[in-house]
């Protein structure tokens, strides 16, 4: 799933390549991707792209006051092309969901797999998008003091808190693994019980991991971003490989439709966490 660094990099790419161009046509290959009825997508036609930004993990293309807002979900992606085919795509064929023509160049929004989550809204104010209206403060703007306030009294697992978009916006499964590993904290730690020193490490790790990923990602072509993300990960999606810090084997906890990774030596005092597939004793 694209998270804060990748979405920020996509927004940067659109600022560099789309701003100043005019939307000449929008092709909708999958009507289900549109989550708003009015304004219609045809109202984007003829509008100049005046900006591109990010709200958490949402991408926002400002077309002279009318916003095309995108959430790429788990398997969605933006594919830029310097020369789009002028032929309208056939609805329901392949991964293409929506295509935006910008007078020659443009981009496709695509989604792999059968489980569809890619969502597009056309709104006059991004806050009209319910998932944006519910967002907590952006992860890059949360300092140590605010982090302590946000986590105070919370009793869910720390991993769950970090990925709760209404609490902190922009962190997903992969970067929460990386942040917790860098901070040397268990995914199952209780947020409201963290010591002051642990909160210091967590705040520093959030800043280090996310700003580092943004720096690696911004300026990369959209097609290279997924590979760039993988290359910077130390524990996420590295089950069975040695931890680059201590050499212990990276372990995995699997759920119904996702998994996360951690290092026992670095994060849990050398004790492997029980996998829900094998046990309900998760302490």
Would you mind describing this structure in some detail?
With 283 residues, the chain is α+β, with helices and mostly antiparallel strands. Helix 1 runs parallel beside helix 6 and helix 5 crosses helix 6. It has two domains: 4-133, Alpha-Beta Barrel (N-terminal domain of MutM-like DNA repair proteins); 139-267, Orthogonal Bundle (Helicase, Ruva Protein, domain 3), CATH 1.10.8. It is elongated, with a radius of gyration of 20 Å. The chain contains eight helices and ten strands. A four-stranded antiparallel β-sheet has the order 1-6-7-5, with no helix packed on it. Strands 2-3-4-8 form a four-stranded antiparallel β-sheet, covered by helices on one side. It has a two-stranded antiparallel sheet with strand order 9-10. The longest helix is centred in the last third of the chain and has 22 residues, at 196-217. Strand 2 and strand 3 (58-63) form a beta hairpin. The model is unreliable at 278-283 (pLDDT under 50). InterPro entries: FPG_cat, FPG_N, H2TH_FPG, Ribosomal_uS13-like_H2TH, Znf_DNA_glyclase/AP_lyase, Znf_FPG/IleRS. It holds the Pfam family zf-FPG_IleRS. Keywords: DNA damage, DNA repair, DNA-binding, Glycosidase, Hydrolase, Lyase, Metal-binding, Multifunctional enzyme, Zinc, Zinc-finger. Residues 234-268 form the FPG-type domain. Belongs to the FPG family.
Decide which structural class fits the backbone.
alpha+beta
CATH level-four homologous superfamily name of the largest domain: MutM-like, N-terminal
Distance between the termini: 28 Å
Question: How helix-rich are the residues, as a percent range?
Answer: 25-40%
Strand count: 10
Note the beta-strand portion. 15-25%
**Largest sheet features:** 4 strands, antiparallel
Give Rg in angstroms.
20 Å
CATH C-level label of the largest domain: Alpha Beta
Mean pLDDT across the residues is 93
Order of strands, main sheet, comes to 1-6-7-5
CATH topology heading of the largest domain: N-terminal domain of MutM-like DNA repair proteins
Q: What is the 3D form?
A: elongated
Poorly predicted spans? 278-283
The appropriate CATH architecture of the largest domain is Alpha-Beta Barrel
Order of helices and strands: HEEEEEEEEHHHHHHEEH
Helix count? Answer: 8
Quickly count the domains: 2
Cofactor: Zn(2+)
Pfam families: Fapy_DNA_glyco, H2TH, zf-FPG_IleRS
Organism: Amycolatopsis pigmentata
Catalytic activity: Hydrolysis of DNA containing ring-opened 7-methylguanine residues, releasing 2,6-diamino-4-hydroxy-5-(N-methyl)formamidopyrimidine
């Amino acid at each position: 799933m694209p998270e804060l660094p990748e979405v920020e990099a996509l927004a940067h790419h659109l600022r560099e390549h789309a701003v100043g161009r005019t939307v000449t046509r929008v092709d909708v290959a999958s009507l289900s991707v549109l989550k708003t009825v009015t304004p219609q997508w045809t109202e984007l036609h003829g509008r100049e792209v005046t900006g591109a930004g990010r709200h958490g993990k949402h991408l926002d293309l400002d077309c002279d006051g009318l916003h095309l807002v995108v959430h790429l979900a788990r398997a969605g992606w933006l594919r830029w092309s310097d020369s789009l085919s002028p032929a309208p795509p056939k609805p329901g064929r392949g991964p293409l969901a929506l295509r935006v023509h910008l007078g020659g160049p443009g981009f496709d929004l695509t989604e792999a797999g059968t489980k569809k989550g890619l969502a597009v809204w056309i709104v006059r104010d991004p806050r009209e998008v319910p998932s944006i209206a519910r967002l907590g403060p952006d992860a890059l703007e949360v300092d140590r003091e605010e982090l302590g306030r946000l986590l105070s009294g919370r009793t869910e697992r720390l991993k769950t808190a970090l990925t709760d978009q209404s609490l902190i916006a922009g962190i997903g499964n992969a970067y929460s693994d990386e942040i917790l590993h860098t901070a040397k904290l268990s995914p199952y730690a209780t947020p409201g019980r963290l010591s002051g020193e642990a909160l210091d490490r967590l705040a520093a790790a959030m800043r280090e991991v996310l700003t580092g990923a943004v720096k690696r990602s911004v300026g990369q072509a959209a097609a290279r971003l997924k590979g760039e993300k993988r290359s910077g990960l130390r524990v996420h999606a590295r089950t069975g490989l040695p931890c680059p810090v201590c050499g212990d084997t990276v372990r995995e906890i699997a759920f119904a439709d996702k998994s996360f990774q951690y290092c026992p030596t670095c994060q849990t005092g050398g004790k492997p966490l029980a996998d829900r597939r094998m046990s309900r004793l998760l302490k």
